[in-house]
Amino acid sequence: MAQSLRHVYCSAPCCSNNKKNFPYLSFHDFPADAEVRARWVRAIRRDEGPNFKILRGSTFVCSQHFSPEDKTISASGRTRIKKGAVPSRFVWNDWGKVNYYSLPAVTPSVLERRQRPEDDSTEEEEMDVELLLQCHNYYKKPEQSALDTEKIDVQQRVIEELQKRLAGVTVKQSFGLERFSASDDDIRFYTRFASYHHLQAFWIQIEPATRRIVRVGTHSSTSCTTAAPDNDPPHRPSRCLPMIDELFLFLVYLSLGLNEKDLGDRFSIHQSTVSRIIKTWCKSHTTLKGMIGVSPHGAVTFVSSLYSGSVSDKELFRQSGIIPLLDKDMAVMVDKGFGIDDVVPCKVYRPPFLTKGSQLSHGEVLVTQDIARLRIHVERTIKHIKENKLFDTIIPLTICGSINQLFAVACLLSNYQNKPPVKVWAI
Question: What is the CA 409 to chain-centroid distance, rounded?
Answer without folding.
Answer: 42
